[in-house]
User: Which sequence fits this backbone?
């Protein structure tokens, strides 16, 4: 049946789907990107069998549980050339409570770089691997990028993308989102690019993730869009500029270039604006995505399509590698192979990586960025060995979290030590929450007392004590402040409300919601 679907797709010149969560339209390397959505070919199954399994899953006694539903183990073996091979695997049961698989962006904006250890620690991750390809000089992704349902970047490059739904299900396919904009009662206009260099004859969308200013100055018309009022869901044209316009923190900029300038020439300040996104078939429920590739495993079989996805030359030689896959039980596999390290691990080719993933039980899998970017981090430690001798700065990573999400005025907060639930009370690192609320913080090491002040309110808590001082008045605590992994954890609801914020608990999905005036 699946072969018939693929053949029909070929005859009709469209994309094809297989399984519940995979969508592919494979474009031969070097083909015109404008025709990318109109061609589809079957994946190429690797022809020669592996002479022997490259690696195997170790006995249960050698597998370490990092958190409920998250396991880690090292792997070792020999390459087909007899060279040493060592790597690391994290298995994730996606349905576990409070588990979250997400994309993290360096510095929380495009154009930044952080090491995998920095990204993982900053988010309080249980485990992490490097993500998609990026420009090493600028830190911008090479390919598309989605985080928390927000499209951060698009690209005409046609390589396998890895998507993650809100239920931690992984999707593999070619990602070609359709973005359009409407002004007033006019028809939709296609947006050619998002957060990249301006489209020469089209419209490019710039969001706050891009930076402070849109595109290049002086070569077109910029339409600046903001909410009509402070808390409105209705957006309007707030300003007309002429290239390089400032990007508002609560809005975006549409840059019109070349032939598209005529579409913007008649627009006026106050015109209603509606921006629409369509992920395309096969990407329903998408929450996070990175473009990487190539596809490695499909329907339990190794496939070889690196050349079709545009990989050439030394990229095909043995190297450090990172991959992501799903096994027959629906568990997520994060896999890293060390490489270019004599007498330790030579690395693998993409073909060997495909077979390695099937050795580990993958029924679907794709490669992530590799080489000096490859890395795997677990529980506060980089377990992989960087081929450069030190960690490389990355543009993004894929993290595994197990924590209660905390939101402040709609924005997700992350802590290097994740929130702890103690007798029904959520405790968070004191400095992280106080700084997020804009409070000044003082720590008295001698008395183990923290004091925070915000907007004429003062709260003091002493480690281990069941009471606190709020504006000089002693009040009981449901859960005392305590030390966890070197951080002082304080009861979130108590300190939040003591400092003038409203703190509520959300049941489905579990989350803490904080509303605070600036």
Assistant:
């Amino acid at each position: 049946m699946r072969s018939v679907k693929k053949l029909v797709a070929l005859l009709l010149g469209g994309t094809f789907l297989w399984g519940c969560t995979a969508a592919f339209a494979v474009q031969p390397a070097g083909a015109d990107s404008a025709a990318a959505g109109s061609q589809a070919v079957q994946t190429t199954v690797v022809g020669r069998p592996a002479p022997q399994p490259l690696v195997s899953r170790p006995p249960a006694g050698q597998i370490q549980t990092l958190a409920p539903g998250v396991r880690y183990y090292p792997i070792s073996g020999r390459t087909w050339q007899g060279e040493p091979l060592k790597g690391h695997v994290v298995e994730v049961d996606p349905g576990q409570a409070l588990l979250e698989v997400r994309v993290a962006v360096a510095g929380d904006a495009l154009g930044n770089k952080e090491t995998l250890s920095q990204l993982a620690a900053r988010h309080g991750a249980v485990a992490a691997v490097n993500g998609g390809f990026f420009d090493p000089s600028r830190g911008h992704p090479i390919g598309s990028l989605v985080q928390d349902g927000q499209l951060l970047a698009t690209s005409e490059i046609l390589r396998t993308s890895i998507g993650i739904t809100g239920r931690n299900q992984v999707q593999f396919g070619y990602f070609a989102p359709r973005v359009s904009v409407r002004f007033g009662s006019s028809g939709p206009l296609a947006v050619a690019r998002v957060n990249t260099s301006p489209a020469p004859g089209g419209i490019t969308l710039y969001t706050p993730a891009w930076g402070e200013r849109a595109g290049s100055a002086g070569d077109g018309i910029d339409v600046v869009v903001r909410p009509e009022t402070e808390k409105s869901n209705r957006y309007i044209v707030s300003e007309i500029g002429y290239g390089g316009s400032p990007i508002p923190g609560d809005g975006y900029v549409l840059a019109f270039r070349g032939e598209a300038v005529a579409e913007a020439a008649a627009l006026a300040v106050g015109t209603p604006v509606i921006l629409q996104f369509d992920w395309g078939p096969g990407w329903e429920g998408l929450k996070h995505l990175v473009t990487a590739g190539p596809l490695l495993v499909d329907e339990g079989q190794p496939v070889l399509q690196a050349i079709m996805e545009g990989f050439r030359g030394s990229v095909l030689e043995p190297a450090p590698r990172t991959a992501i896959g799903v096994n027959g039980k629906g568990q997520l596999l994060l896999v890293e192979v060390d490489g270019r390290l004599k007498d330790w691990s030579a690395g693998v080719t993409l073909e060997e990586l495909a077979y390695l993933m099937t050795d580990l039980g993958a029924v679907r899998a794709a490669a992530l960025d590799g080489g000096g970017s490859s890395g795997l981090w677990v529980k506060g430690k980089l377990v992989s060995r960087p081929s450069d001798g030190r960690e490389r700065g990355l543009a993004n990573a894929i993290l595994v979290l197990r924590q209660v999400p905390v939101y402040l005025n709609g924005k997700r907060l992350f802590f290097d030590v994740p929130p702890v639930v103690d007798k029904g009370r959520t405790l968070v690192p004191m400095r992280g929450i106080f700084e997020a609320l804009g409070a000044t913080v003082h720590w008295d090491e001698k008395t183990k007392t923290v004091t925070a002040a915000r907007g004429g309110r003062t709260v003091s808590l002493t480690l281990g004590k069941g009471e606190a001082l709020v504006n000089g008045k002693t009040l009981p605590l449901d859960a005392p402040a305590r030390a966890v992994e070197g951080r002082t954890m304080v009861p979130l609801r108590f300190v939040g409300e003591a400092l003038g914020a409203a703190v509520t608990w959300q049941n489905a999905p579990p989350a803490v919601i904080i509303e605070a005036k600036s």
